[in-house]
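Ticket #4471: structure export looks truncated?
Reporter: QA, pipeline team
Priority: medium

Steps to reproduce: submit the single chain below to the structure queue and open the exported record.
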Amino acid sequence: MIHFLLTWVSTAVALLITANIVDGFQIRNFTTALIATIVIGLINAFVRPILSFVTFPITLMTFGLFTFVLNAFTLWLASTFTPGFRIDGFLPALFGSIVLAIVSSIISYFLRKVK
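Actual output as written to the record:
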C-alpha cells in the first residue's frame, strides 16, 4: 500500500514538474495532478494495450519510436478527461511525454535509493 501511494504521489509531482518545463502543458494544482495520475493509469490499463496492438506494425517499422506518439496521445486523452489538466496540441503532448518519462525515472531512482 505504501509503495502504491509513493508511486502515485511521485507521478503527480513529476506531472507538476513537467508542467513547469513544457510550454502548453498545464496543470492547475497538486490535487489536479493526483487526479490526472489516476486517469493516466486507467488509460494505460484499458486503452493503451488496444492502441499498442493496433499500432504494432508502425511501432515495429519505426524501431519503437512510434511509442512516443502513443505516449503523447495517452497524455492528451487523459487531459481531455481531467478538469484543470490541459495540453495545447501535439508537440506539447510529445515533449511532455518525453519530459515526464525522464522526470519520473529520476524520481523513481531517488525513491529506490531512499528505501
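Status: closed, not a bug. The export was complete when the record was re-opened. Leaving a note from the reviewer for reference: Residues 53 and 59 are 10 Å apart (CA to CA).
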